[in-house]
Design goal:
The complex is a heterodimer of chains A (295) and B (381). Chain A has eleven helices and two strands. Chain A has 295 residues and is mainly alpha-helical. Chain A has a two-stranded antiparallel sheet with strand order 1-2. Chain A starts with a helix and ends in a 14-residue tail after the last helix. Chain B has two domains: 192 residues, Rossmann fold (3-Layer(aba) Sandwich); 141 residues, Rossmann fold (3-Layer(aba) Sandwich), CATH 3.40.50. In chain B, the strands form three sheets. In chain B, strands 7-6-8-9-10-13-14 form a seven-stranded mixed sheet, with helices on both faces. In chain B, strands 2-1-3-4-5 form a five-stranded parallel sheet, with helices on both faces. In chain B, helix 6 links the parallel strand 6 and strand 7. Chain B is globular. Classes of the chains: A mainly alpha (295), B alpha/beta (381). Chains A and B meet through helix 1 and helix 10 of A and strand 7, helix 7 and helix 8 of B.
Chain lengths: 295, 381
């Protein structure tokens, strides 16, 4: 088959993977935008989301849509608790203290998951049949289509919340200036909780999509995607919501290009090489405005 | 005054008794350490091995033990992780004072434990490790399974000669010795027999997304695809391969044998071929007896890992009996020379090089079950 068909097919694969990164990156970027914290436990929320979905389907016998919603709600709750217990008491501490706490929280979630869910690899219940949809010379699997559909839907909902609701307005206000927002009568704590809830719910959806797409979940599945989604957020411009989407999609496609024309062993290396290049030449990210950091 | 003296004497006496009694008891048992993967990415292997080994040891103890001494097992979980396996080995050697180590289960873990056992001069036998390099670590290291070079050669021969396949593609884990060893052996034999490897793709341990590699492979439309890896990775690869349009004949290895394969492969393992250590269809009394008792005891049919675990105990028991003691030197010699052991995976003859001479089988998944297709007798080592 011709190389351009191959390229198109790989583009579809890359976009599917990229949509997953984008969903996770959104959580990173929203939290960073609002409290300037890199929540390293975010990848583990994504892992928990996959497990919640797994148990919603196998134990609660839910079908796919209610299972996704249950899992998103469960992950949102964990996200809110995480912020309340681990991050809020440190809100006025140096940023490095909170960062280290975030890494600790990540390890805690991984070990707890291993204890509760077991360390074995679990096959994900395949709640929908396998199908391939032919689009001219290329095809798309119904799982990839599901990833695109859910990702776009959730991003649209997020966009509406951030730009057209009172909650979104308050979030933007807190992101701009916490003290001023407080003076305007905004309950900053509640807004931060809501941000954690929304970011975690998006990660949970990504976890289920990945479980169905790759058919394997384990307690450590959040580590690599979490780090790569972080790179995606930085690539797009951390704190900027559309930047996370652009960064995620670019990362997914870049990885597929590397594996296709280069070597699979370079896959992770390239992801982090992107981080270094971005930080060197465009530290504010692709969509970030050039600004002088306030001292 | 004399009261206090009496009390002190009494306490001293109690201490002596308390210290001495377990000492006496220990003289009567042979302590064996089992390192296995009860959790982690290869958990079903380790659980099967643990079940079969405990069953085998119980059998020996029920029959009066070895030369009158019972066997006591210390079981440690390595989680399929080389570092954990090395720590388990240290504990067995330094604290538990075992006479011999059984396990670990997978090659990367064995490679971590073998140098430790060799340095300590303690015999070890991995019932299941297939990596070629295992037994070259030293003269105290033995295994109960065939080597990967043997296994890869058998699959290539079967594909080329029995299935008449001319073209093969390979997807393998560059970060795992087991996968790389199998790929090398398969490739060499397949090309030697006139076949062509038309495409090769690789990934690293822990990857979950194989879509880029499999899409590249699908474009070449290979007649067959060789996937030398454990079930937890081979399963998702099989599923993703079929979804991405690969309809090649799928060729596998002993690592595919797990009750979890089918769920991980989404049923797409159907029709695939593997090389394995044993088949439940083999008409041998020992094998059938083992299957019946294992099934009754654990509520599921034994896989090859269980059969190998059981055979590991049989080899160990023969060697302990032949050695007549737990002296490491005598035990090492016995492990390399015992033979004609009628075991669950066939007749086993040990060899001082460390690898037994035994047969292999080719199985095909038909209707969700492993069906015996061919049986290959050893062709040297």
């Amino acid at each position: 088959m011709a190389w351009h068909i191959m390229a198109l097919q790989q583009l579809i694969n890359g976009l599917a993977l990229g949509s997953v990164y984008a969903l996770i990156a959104l959580g990173y970027t929203m939290v960073y935008g609002i409290i300037k914290l890199i929540n390293f436990a975010h990848g583990d929320i994504y892992m928990l989301g996959a497990y919640f979905g797994f148990y919603a389907i196998t134990v609660l016998k839910l079908s796919l849509v209610p299972a996704v919603l249950t899992s998103m709600a469960g992950a949102a709750l964990v996200g809110v608790l995480l912020e309340r217990i681990a991050y809020r008491p440190l809100r006025n501490s140096p940023r490095i203290a909170v960062l280290i706490t975030a890494i600790g929280a990540s390890l805690l979630l991984q070990s707890t998951a291993q204890l509760v869910f077991g360390a074995s690899f679990k096959p994900f219940p395949q709640a929908i049949p396998f199908r391939r949809i032919q689009l001219g010379p290329v095809f798309i699997t119904n799982r990839q289509l599901l990833i695109f559909g859910v990702a776009v839907l959730l991003m649209v909902i997020l966009h509406i919340i951030v730009h057209y609701t009172k909650l979104g307005k308050a979030m933007r206000a807190v992101s701009m200036d916490k003290e001023a927002a407080l003076l305007m009568g905004i309950n900053v704590d509640r807004i931060i909780s809501a941000t954690f809830a929304m970011g975690s719910a998006l990660a949970a959806a990504a976890g289920i999509l990945v479980g169905m797409y790759y058919n394997r979940i384990d307690p450590y599945m959040g580590m690599m995607p979490g780090l790569k989604a972080f790179v995606a957020a930085v690539l797009g411009g951390i704190g900027i919501v559309p930047g996370a989407v652009v960064g995620g999609l670019l990362m997914g496609v870049a990885e597929n290009v590397v594996v296709t024309i280069g070597s699979s062993t370079l896959r992770d290396a390239v992801a982090f090489a992107i981080l270094i290049v971005v930080l060197l030449f465009r530290p504010n990210g692709l969509l970030g405005k050039k600004g002088i950091e306030k001292v | 005054m004399s009261h206090v003296k009496l009390k002190t004497m009494f306490i001293c006496l109690m201490l002596v008794v308390a210290l001495a009694v377990p000492g006496f008891a220990q003289e009567d048992v042979i302590k064996i350490g089992l390192i296995t993967s009860l959790t982690g990415s290869v958990a079903t292997y380790g659980q099967s091995v643990r079940n079969a080994v405990t069953m085998g040891v119980d059998d020996i103890n029920a029959a009066g033990g070895i030369n009158g001494r019972k066997i006591s097992l210390v079981i440690l979980d390595d989680k399929g992780d080389a570092t954990e396996a090395a720590q388990a080995a240290r504990r067995l050697i330094d604290r538990e004072n075992v006479a011999m180590i059984l396990g670990p289960v997978i090659t990367p873990c064995v490679m971590a434990v073998a140098p430790i056992a060799q340095a300590a001069g303690l015999p070890m036998l991995t019932p299941t490790g297939t990596g070629d390099q295992i037994t070259s670590i030293g003269d105290y290291i033995f295994r109960g399974a065939y080597k990967d070079s043997f296994q890869g050669r058998i699959m290539a021969q079967f594909a080329a000669e029995n299935l008449g396949i001319k073209e093969a593609a390979i997807i393998y884990d560059v970060a795992n010795d087991y996968s790389v060893g199998l790929r090398n052996a398969f490739k060499a034999t397949f090309e030697e027999l006139g076949g062509k490897i038309i495409a090769e793709e690789s990934y690293s341990t822990g990857d979950t997304d194989f879509s880029a590699q499999l899409t590249s492979l699908a474009m070449r439309n290979p007649e067959s695809l060789f996937i030398p890896d454990y079930y937890s990775t081979a399963g998702p690869i099989l599923m993703q391969a079929r979804l991405l349009g690969l309809d090649s004949v799928m060729l596998g290895v002993d690592g595919w044998d797990s009750p979890d394969l089918s769920a991980l492969a989404g049923g797409f393992e159907e029709g695939g071929y593997i090389v394995n250590h044993y088949s439940a269809d083999v008409d041998s009394e020992v094998t059938q007896n083992f299957i019946a008792r294992y099934t009754e005891k654990f509520g599921q049919a034994p896989d090859a890992l269980a059969a190998l675990g059981y055979d590991g105990v049989l080899i160990m028991a023969s060697a302990l009996e032949a050695a007549g003691s737990t002296d490491p030197e005598a035990l090492k010699h016995a492990l390399g020379t015992v033979g004609d052991i009628d075991a669950a995976t066939g007749v086993i003859n040990m060899d001082p090089e460390g690898t037994p001479i035994k047969s292999a089988v080719i199985l095909r998944i038909t209707g969700g079950k492993w069906e015996l297709v061919d049986r290959i007798d050893p062709i040297g080592r």
